[in-house]
Design goal:
Length: about 280
């Protein structure tokens, strides 16, 4: 089962327990997800729990169920006032039930392990506009995109998605979604640290190679014994330990010196080698 399917199941569970007028339910389902036909509307779903709820609770005279492999179709010859659906979305005390119904009827959510994306495909533009306003009252700002036969409403904002799950009463989905977010953040932090460590290791290796090359050039041309004692000791230490960082290299000196002191000596050696090039 996908995350989206589990979320739709939880939305149906909320609707089964809700005390909402069936006239409101039928009106919102019809105008949000019904496709116009010559005889009325057609509603389709692949989700069995939602189809069962429609069949056993919502259907009345004028509704015909047509079941085919993988898809449930409801042919609706009855009609319900659009204003009934809009009034429900404007009613704050039961708006969460409307949010749950809209997801069950025409919502979808991407796998949060991959990306954050929640969307609704709403057939009626007026219902879509009303839903945008209703969500906005809870600081959930849905973007809209007009398609050929529906309006796509969506958000990619993880905080807004979490808020919508809460308002729709999908607490199991919210907990799972929050855990995915935490896991993803931890993984991203680990990856950033690993990348940072790799970059630092490359810089240390490149710097050490340049220093060792400068020391070898000095040794082959003028000889390390001609250098001042402090530089000669630093040069021989680098040849003996080509893979150490400056801090680690400084600790091998007698007496030990810090990273800054070692860096100063290496710069001197590189500058002398450059003069001989």
């Amino acid at each position: 089962m996908s995350f989206s399917s589990d979320l739709r199941t939880e939305a149906v569970e909320r609707l089964q327990a809700a005390e909402v007028s069936l006239e409101r339910v039928r009106a919102l389902i019809l105008h949000a997800s019904g496709r116009r036909t010559p005889d009325g509307y057609q509603i389709e779903t692949r989700h069995k729990a939602y189809a069962d709820w429609l069949n056993h609770t919502v259907c009345e005279t004028g509704w015909t169920v047509v079941e085919s492999p993988g898809t449930f179709r409801f042919l609706v010859e009855a009609d319900y006032p659009l204003e009934t659906a809009l009034r429900w979305l404007r009613t704050s005390d039961s708006r969460g039930d409307a949010f749950a119904l809209l997801f069950a009827a025409c919502g979808a959510m991407a796998d949060p392990a991959r990306t954050s994306h929640l969307e609704y495909r709403i057939k009626n533009q007026v219902v879509a506009a009303s839903f945008i306003q209703a969500a906005g009252q809870h600081d959930i700002w849905l973007s809209s995109l007009s398609e050929k036969s529906y309006v796509r409403l969506y958000t990619k904002d993880s905080a807004e998605i979490g808020d919508m799950l809460i308002h729709a009463g999908a607490m199991r989905a919210y907990i799972r979604y929050s855990q995915f977010k935490v896991d993803k953040e931890v993984l991203n932090n680990v990856n950033r640290q690993v990348n940072c460590d790799r970059a630092n290791a490359r810089r240390v290796a490149d710097s050490s190679m340049a220093q060792a090359e400068a020391v070898r050039r000095l040794d082959e041309t003028v000889g390390l014994h001609t250098l001042p004692e402090t530089l000669e000791m630093a040069a021989r230490a680098r040849l003996a330990h080509p893979d150490l960082s400056l801090s680690e290299l400084g600790s091998t000196m007698t007496p030990p010196i810090g990273k800054s002191g070692m860096n100063h000596r290496m710069k001197k050696l590189i500058a002398l080698a450059a003069e001989l090039a």
